[in-house]
Each structure stands twice: as structure tokens, then as C-alpha cells.
Amino acid sequence: MTQTPTPAPRRRMLKSVRLVFNNGHSVVNGVLRDISDTGARVSVENGLSLPDEVKLVLDDGGSHQCIIVRRELKELGLRFT
């Protein structure tokens, strides 16, 4: 019997972030809502038009390569790769 992995604890945030894609030629601004060791939740103006893989760039200079695992019009669930 396989166990479902325990989700990583999320830390609530309210910070500006950028989602970068198209080999760094395209950027969408967003708001980081929460983050964990394995992923993040980001609010955006329109999440439906983004590709499946993006780079999450934080204001402190940190970044994470991500796969979009949950997509709504104004919110994305990201998993770090």
C-alpha cells in the first residue's frame, strides 16, 4: 500500500514576483500568496495563457524553475523542479 506524500508546510506571503518564460523574453508579474520547499501559489492577471513551465523570480533575487500543476484564470499552483 502506497502512502500519499505529506504536503510540505506552506508559508503565507504577499510579495511581488515575476514569471519568466520564452527563453527569458517574456515576463508576467504576479503576487506570491504562499510558498513551501516544493512549490508556490501565485496570483496573476491571466494564468490561462502561460506555458506549462516557467521560472519564478523573487524580489530578493532567488528563483525556481517550475511546472504549473494547477491553473485557474487568476491563480497558479507551481511545483518546483
UniProtKB/TrEMBL annotation:
Species of provenance: Rhizobium lemnae
Descriptive protein name: PilZ domain-containing protein
A Pfam family this chain is assigned to: PilZ
Source species taxonomy: Bacteria, Pseudomonadati, Pseudomonadota, Alphaproteobacteria, Hyphomicrobiales
Superkingdom classification of source: Bacteria
InterPro entries documented for this protein: PilZ_domain
Residues annotated as domain PilZ: 12-80
